[in-house]
Design goal:
Largest sheet: 5 strands, antiparallel
CATH superfamily of the largest domain: ATP-grasp fold, B domain
Number of helices: 13
CATH topology of the largest domain: D-amino Acid Aminotransferase, Chain A, domain 1
Number of domains: 3
Radius of gyration: 21 Å
Helix content: 25-40%
Structural class: alpha+beta
Bound molecules: adenosine monophosphate
Strand content: 15-25%
Distance between the termini: 12 Å
């Protein structure tokens, strides 16, 4: 595992006035690059050949490194180039999904914005649960054996898979029928069946607040709230019930985008306190705790009870709804603030006061 000392040694060789902000070309890269440019940084994009068009049409990356596979980020040549350009990498969902936390912890020597250790907590469901429980949040019940299904459950797979292949079941029989259907439709493999995670399905409205914890300013800000737009669950209302029954519609949850939300104001006190307590606990479980963006994935019931089913300890793609501005970023900053820019602003602040080592790991 790469130690903080090694990262600090890399950082000491950096030219502090010439920091570049880099990331993988996907997920929230445009958000991150735009923010970096607006705060005066150079940018670098590690991009798959087939996706280069994005960074040509939105030319926000000063340098594009083309790869066949995101795992090439870990190769010596690319890491050398990133260090030469004084790059700080901003991790997002594609880092977990296509490289994996263990490889990042062991092989990525380039400084990352944020606390690496928490990426490990984020990708381990048991650790996540422990973190959220200790923060006093309300979680849905979870179990692993389909025999224990005694009400509506959602079946999930590990890793940031964006809801692909998730399905609902109400009994052990419907679980097996639907799992078979999902395997047939190519959503997951039979050998992954044992890795399924079952969670009590909470009937309520989804909302995903995106927070930012600044260790420099010592505040937890809320920069935006979104919900997901998912195929096919979000379109079943367009198909009459009779046809749904006829085709035995079995919806899944593949995310295709996000929709902004402004929250009922009387829900904000609870949401804000949840963000604060998650940060407090993060300092105990992985000192110095969360640095920068994180998101709580919640469902709010008609009793206004807030259930949290997941945490992302990094920028989420839902924060892309705020590119330009969101109501909550506007309230604190006026126009032109959003997660990518807030990250760049923190890096800029830290470099100005010579405290970069406090925000990269
Ligand atoms: P991608 O590079 O688009 O494949 O995204 C990397 C990971 O983040 C995948 O596991 C996606 O499912 C997830 N992801 C991408 N975009 C979103 C989004 N808008 N909302 C939630 N998850 C996402
Ligand atoms: P995820 O990829 O885990 O963020 O979830 C995919 C979809 O399932 C989203 O629409 C979530 O709101 C929904 N979801 C996940 N867990 C639950 C739950 N325990 N109860 C209700 N909806 C959920």
């Amino acid at each position: 595992m790469i130690t903080k000392n090694e990262i600090d040694a890399v950082l000491r060789k950096y030219e502090i006035r010439k920091i570049t902000i880099g990331t993988l070309g996907s997920h929230s890269a445009l958000n991150i690059f735009k923010g970096a440019k607006e705060e005066g940084f150079k940018t670098i994009c590690i991009c798959k050949k087939e996706d280069e068009i994005v960074y040509q049409r939105f030319p926000l990356a000063d340098e594009v490194i083309l790869v066949e596979d995101f795992k090439e980020l870990l190769g010596d040549n690319i890491q050398k180039r990133l260090k030469q350009t004084n790059t700080i990498l901003v991790p997002h969902g594609s880092f977990n999904a296509y490289i994996g936390t263990e490889k990042i912890m062991d092989d990525l020597h380039v400084p990352l914005f944020g606390n690496r250790e928490l990426l490990r907590w984020e990708t381990n469901r048991e650790k996540q649960k422990e973190w959220l429980r200790r923060a006093g949040l309300t979680l849905p019940k979870t179990f692993t054996d389909p025999q224990d299904i005694d009400g509506l459950v959602i079946a999930k797979f590990s890793g940031a898979k964006g809801g692909k292949g998730y399905f609902l079941a109400n009994s052990v029989e419907s679980f097996h029928n639907k799992a078979r259907d999902m395997i047939k439709r190519g959503h997951f493999r039979r050998e992954d069946l044992g890795k399924i995670h079952l969670q009590e399905y909470i009937i309520g409205a989804n909302s995903y607040p995106s927070f930012f914890h600044s260790p420099l300013k010592k505040v937890v800000e809320i920069l935006g709230i979104d919900k997901r737009y998912e195929s096919t669950v979000d379109i079943i209302g367009r198909i009459p019930a009779s046809e749904q029954l006829e085709i035995a519609l079995n919806p899944t949850y593949t995310v295709i985008g996000n929709i902004p939300i402004t929250m009922r104001e009387s829900l904000l006190p609870a949401i804000l306190r949840m963000g604060d307590s998650v940060v407090t606990v993060s300092k105990e479980i992985a000192p110095p705790g969360i640095i920068g963006p994180f998101c709580l994935e919640t469902v709010i019931t008609d009793d206004l009870e807030i259930f949290t089913f997941e945490i992302s300890a990094r920028i989420v793609a839902g924060s892309n709804v705020g590119i330009g501005t969101s109501p909550y970023a506007y309230l604190n900053y006026g126009e032109g603030m959003y997660m990518g820019r807030r990250i760049a602003k923190e890096i800029k602040h830290a470099s100005e006061i010579l405290e970069l080592e406090k925000i990269v790991y």
